[in-house]
Amino acid sequence: MSTQTQSTKTPSTKISSTALPADQQSKPQGRPEVLDQAKRGTVCALVAIGCSRSQAAEYVGCSPSTITRLAQRNEPFAEQLRQAEMQREVTPLKNVVAASGRSWRAGAWLLERMYPDRYGRRQPDAVSRGEVIHFAEQMGRIIRSHIHDPFGLQQVEGQMKRLIEEIMGEYRSSSPHEAGPS
Question: Is 81 exposed, middle or buried (0-12, 13-18, 19+ CB in 10 A)?
Fold first, then answer.
C-alpha cells in the first residue's frame, strides 16, 4: 500500500535559478542603488576638489542625506569620503606651504592663520589672551596686598575669577581661531 500512495503523489514543483532565462538571472532583486560605484566615485572626486556634500549630491542627482546614510552603512565609502574631505583641506594647504618658500607674503599669510595670537593682525585696541591673564595676575597681587580679611579676600577673588572666565569666554567666541596647531 505504501508503494501505491507514493506513486499517486505529485512531484514537487521547485524552480531552480537555472530554469530562468539568462537575462532574469543576472538582475539584482529589490530597489536599485541610487549611488552606484561610479556615482560614489564622482561624489568623492567632487568633495576632494572643494564641493560640499550637498553640491556633490545635486550633481549626481541624489539627496545629501543619501550620501550620509550610505556612508553610515558602507565603511569603505565612508573612508573614501573622509579621505576626500581631508584632501579638500590638505591640497590648498600644501600649495600655500610650497608658495611660502617662494613668497614671503604666502608665509606671512600662513603664519597669521596658523598662529593668530602671535602673528595675526590685531586691532589697535585689541587685547590678547596673554595680556588678559597678565592683567588678572597683577590685579590679584594688588588686591591680596590690600585686603587682609580672609573672607573678604575670598569673595573678591571669586568675583574676579568669574569676571575673567566671562571675558575669556567672550574672547574665545569672538576669536576666529581658538588656538593654533600644536
Answer: buried
